[in-house]
What does this fold into?
Amino acid sequence: MNEQTKRESFFGACPHDCPDTCAMIYEVDEGKLVNVKGNKDHPITRGTLCVKLKDFHDHHHNPDRVLYPLRRVGPKGSGPNGGNTFERITWDEAISEIGRRWRETIAEYGAEAIMPQSYLGNMGLVQGINSGDPFFNRLGSTVNEKTYCTSGSSSAWLLTYGPTGGVDPESFVHCKYIVIWACNSISTNLHHWPFVLEAQKRGAKVVVIDAYKSRTAKAADWHICPRPGTDGALAMGIINSMIQQGLVDQEYADNYVHGFPELKERAADFTPEYVEDVTGVKAADIAKFAREFVTSQPSAIRIGVAIERSAGGAQAARAVYAIPALAGSWRHVGGGMLQLPLWDFPVDWVKAARPDFIKPGTRVVNNLRLGQALTGEMKLDPPIKSLFVFCTNPVSQSPETNKIVEGLKREDLFTVVAEHFINDTAKYADIILPAAMAGEAEDMMWSWGHFYFTYNQKAVEPPGECKPTSDMWRLLAAEMGFDDPVFKMTDSELCEAYINWADPKMGGIDMEYFKQHGYYKIDVGSCDTRTPHAEGKFPTPSGKIELLLHDARNFVAPPFRAMYEAEQDGTLLDPLPGYQPVRESPQTNPELAKRFPLNIISPKSHAFLNSCYANEPHKIRIQGEQFVMISPTDAATRSIREGDPVRVANDRGSFEGVARVTEDVNPGIVVATLGYWRQLNRSDGSVNSISSDAWSNIGRAPTYSDNLVEVTRVN
It folds into this structure.
C-alpha cells in the first residue's frame, strides 16, 4: 500500500483590488497547486475566502490561460470578434522585438512616446501596480497617473486628516452606531462585515447610505437612499442639523478642528427643505440621523470609494469626513472614520517607485483619459506610439472604452500586454506576455482595508512559460542596457527592500518573521483600546482636522503617480467642504435628460473582482449575465418586462443586458454592475462604454456615477 503523499503548505496573500487582502494557505501536492483556503489564524480572514477566491487554485489551472509569449499576425482587428490573431514566439523573440520597437520609437519621437498603463489587478509591492515604475521611470516614458478609484477620496482625506490610517476596522465591534457610506461591504469588503455584525449583536445600529438597495443595504437596520451624486448635500445637511440641534461636541471642535466657524456659516445654506429637495432624503430622517450619530457613541463611518464617482464626489467626501469630527466620535474606541488604512503602512514608496529616475519636466497622462491619449483627441507631443499594459484591463475598467478600442486599433501603435488571459485589452495587443498568478510568484501585500502586511510565498512554478511581472522588468532592463542595482534584485530582496523596518510600527521584526507567520499587524495600538485622535494629534500642518484650507491646490497622492511630485493638477480648491452638483442629471442638465433621462450607477459585481473572473463560467452563473436593474415605474413606461433584453445607451456608446425589474432602485435610476467582458456580452460593449472620462473635482477621480442614459427593449 502506497503511503499517501503529504501536501506542502505555503503562505498566500490575495493580490486583488479589495480591502480585505485575505491571508491564504496554498496547498501543493507533487508540485501542483491543489487547494487554496483562508488562513484560520488570521484575525481578519478567519479561514474564509469570498465567492471570488474560494476556488483560487482552479483559476490557476484555467485552460484558457496564456502560457507562452504571443505575437500578432495579420491586421489589427482581423481576428475573432474583432480582435487580433496571434502566433506563439519565444521570450527571446518577444523581448528583442519590444526592445527594437522601443529604440526606434525613442530615436524618432523620444521616450515619452512610450506609456505604461497599470492599476490594482495586483496589489503587490513586487508584482503589482507600482512594480513597473522603476523601469519606466528609468526608460523616460510618460508617467502614468493611476486614478481608477480612491484617488479623490484619498486626496480629500489627506487634506482633511493627513496620512493617518483612521479607525481600526477591528475596533468596529465596540461601536454603538455604524454608518457604511457608499460601500457594499457584503460584496466588496466581506471580512469587515463580521465585525459589524458582532457590534450589531451587542446593540449597535447599522446604517447604510447608498443610492440603491445593495446586499448590504438590505442587511442594515436603516437604509438612507440619496440620489446619485448628492452625498455632499446630504452630509452638509447633517452638519447643519447637528448645529441646529445643539449636538456639536464644541470642546472637541474648539481644540482639534480647524475651520468650524467657517463651515458653520456655509452649512447654514443647507436647510432641511433644500437638502430634501436635492437628495430626496426626508428632512426628518436627516435630523434623526444627526441626533443618533452624535448621541450613540462610539459612532463611526466606513466610507467607500463610490462616493467620489461624481463631479463633486471628492468634495462630498470632505463633508462626510467632518461629521465624526464635529460629533466628537474620535474620543472613543472605535469612533471616527475609516477610509484607507494604507496611510499608516511603513512602505518605502520612494524606493518602490524610484522617482529619482524621472527627468524633470516629464509629462503625466491620467489613465482615465487613455482614449483621448490614444486617439489624438489629447494633443500630445510626442504622440503615444507604444503602450505597455499590466495589472489592468482598461477596455473593461476605464471610461469611454469605445474610444480606447479605436485607439488600440491604430496600426502605428505598438501595444504590449502582460496578462493571464486574452481579455478585452489583450485581444488588441501586438505582443502578449504570459504573466504568473499569485501562487507562482513571491510578493508582499499592504492593505487598504486593515492594518496587516501579508506575505505571499511562491508555492509552485508557473505553467508553460509564464513569468512574474518582476522578471519582465529584469529582462526588459537588460534589453535596454540598464544596469541599475534595482533591476538585479531578486523578489525576496525586493520584498524586504520596500518596507521601512526601522519604523516603530514594524515592532522590531524582520523578513524571517513573515516566513514563519505569513502576516504581521503593524503596531498601531490594540483594537480594544485604540483612540488615535482622542486628543487631536493629526498629521496635518496644524495638528488638527483641517476643514478650512488655505490656498490648497488639487493633487493626486504620490503613490498613484510613481511618487512624482511635479506636473500636478494645481488648480485652486474650495477652502471648505460643500456640495457640487452632478454634471449629468435631470435636475442639472435637463436638455440632455430629454434624450437620456436615467441616471446610471455601475457598482462592483458580487462574483467578479473588477474584470477578474468574468471569464469563468461558474462565476458568471453566480453573478448572472450582464443585467440592468430598473424600477417598475421606468420599466412600465418603456414596455420592459423582467428578463427582457435591453440596450443602455448615450452619445458615448451602448451595451446590452437583461432587465431586472425591481424596487431595489428608485425611479430615474438604473444599476448595471461592472466587470463583464465586452467580448462575452450580448453585444460588443460593457457598462463603461457609456461612462464619461470627466474627472471629479479633487484628485482626478472618475465620474462613473455621473452619467445619463436611456434604456430600451431590444426586439
